[in-house]
Amino acid sequence: MTLVVVGSVGIDTVETPFGRVEDVVGGSAVYFSLAASLFTEVRVAANVGHDFPAHPWEALRARGADLSGLKVYPDQPTFRWTGRYQGDMGSAETLSTELNLLAVPPVVPADYRGAPFVFLANMGADVQIRMLDELDGATVFADTMNLWIRTQPEELREVLRRVDGLILNDGEARMLTGETNLIAAGSELLKMGPEIVVVKKGEHGAFLFAPEFHFALPAYPTTRVVDPTGAGDSFAGGFVGFLASAGEVDKHRLRQAMAYGTVAASLTVEKFSTQALEEASREDLDRRYAELREFVRLEQRERV
Questions:
Q1: pLDDT of amino acid 301
Q2: Domains plus CATH for the chain?
């Protein structure tokens, strides 16, 4: 089924213990779309400036993505972010941010309206509300971050009341709910409106919360973490992309989606920027999916 994503397109400069890269592809909509397009037809709505490279769009077109929602501003620069990872690379230190076109709401084509699945990637909650009105999607997932939790709390509460699912990291879950325990935080987030909440924990895996069940999954056991940028967006792309390809949301599909989100993120972190996702195939994800299932099964046996 068709999946519409609205979010940011960015240019990043990133430093990790493995090196430094300048002016590389970034942005929530790009990472998400590259992962989701391995599963289903993706339609992208975002703003892009004159300085953004063409290769991610070429990869997406090759996978059948609809890019008619990309609005190119030939006289304005793309959103830019500079960050540094140190130590275990659990979180980034932001060195500079230039909003540029991120401050301009995306323009959504009329034929994107009413899509079976929609993902509102990381952007202001006020913009997400506008996108909810314009898109009128059947099943809508959203992301957020600490900036919007701090600066747009009321707007974000409205978003949560209106979406079907929320995907965020553990720090954001604690900040949004005031709960230090993640199980308690997940339960509180369900009370705010969404029927599905996914809390990402980086190298420690992810939790899924729904009214009828909870589910936890460890991270894929990769030994090569080069650049964590975009891992969360890639997780969301694998998660929602798989659900869109399945065409339904139930316990079984949600568990599978968690695994596909996990392996999509594991691919992303092994190279800088979007390189790994641009080079990936569905077969790569299926292979890691099978390996993750076996890894979890062996872990469960050892605990008995």
A1: 55
A2: 3-303 (3.40.1190.20)
